[in-house]
Each structure stands twice: as structure tokens, then as C-alpha cells.
Amino acid sequence: QVPLVESGGGLVQAGGSLRLSCAASGSISSIYRMAWYQQAPGKQRALVAEITVGGTTNYADSKKGRFTISRDDAQNTVYLQMNSLKPEDTGVYYCNSLPPGLGQFASWGQGTQVTVSS
After folding, report:
1. CA 53 to CA 97: how far, in whole Å?
2. How many CB atoms lie under 10 A from the CB of residue 87?
């Protein structure tokens, strides 16, 4: 069973919006911080946004004011609302714990591709 399944990516024009979902096969309620990561073309995976069990959020500077992370522990799902998208937001987006690899999340999911055209 794949521990994390990301979805919701696609091709969008600059200024558009997407909502990503991450469904976990097991409970996330015991994971204090869940996060979204971006792997841009030719770059290493980088932290985009994080959220604690209590709902406290933090974002990469380049995403502040445009992205919103949320979590539904009852549904074992983490979301990323992405607005005002820019070409530099292009990449494969993954969710995982923060730090990554905690508990059942030792393996990364397949990610979801986001492509923003100018």
C-alpha cells in the first residue's frame, strides 16, 4: 500500500490556481507536522509549506500570500491551495512529514506535476 498519494496537479497559465491533495494510507493525526515539498526541474526537493496538528502554518518566502496548506486528520488528507501561480512554481509536488520519513512515511509518493505557463 502506497503511504502517500498526491493528486490535483496539472497545466495552468500564470495567475491561475490549483488545489493539491495528499491522501495518506494511514493516520496522520500522530504526525506533528505535515508538509508539502516542491522539486523544480533540475533542483533538489525543497520545503514549500508546513502545518502542525494544531493548525499553525509556515511557508517558504516565495509562496507566502499565495499558497495555503491545510489538513484534515479525520480524512488523513493534506491539502495545498495554490493561487496566483507563477512559472517558477513549476515542479513535482510531494507531501510528507516534516522532517520527511517519519513513521509510515519512509517512502515518498509519486508526487503530482504542476506546470505553470507564462
Report:
1. 11
2. 11
Q: Tell me which DSSP letter residue 85 carries.
A: -
- The phi and psi torsions of 49 (rounded to 5 degrees) equal -155, 150
Q: Which tops the pLDDT comparison, 11 or 106?
A: 11
CB 103 within 8 A of CB 97: yes
Residues facing residue 24 across a β-bridge:
4
What is the phi/psi pair of residue 88, to 5°? -70, -5
State the Cα–Cα distance between residues 53 and 29, nearest whole angstrom: 7
Query: Which residues, at least 6 apart from 118, have a Cβ–Cβ distance to it below 8 Å?
Result: 14, 87
As beta bridge partners, residue 91 has 114
β-strands 46-52, 33-39 pairing: antiparallel
Over the stretch 41-87, which tens digit does the pLDDT of each residue have?
999 999 999 999 999 999 999 999 999 999 999 999 999 999 999 99
- Distance (Å, whole) CA 51 – CA 41: 25
> Distance (Å, rounded) from C-alpha 73 to C-alpha 24?
10
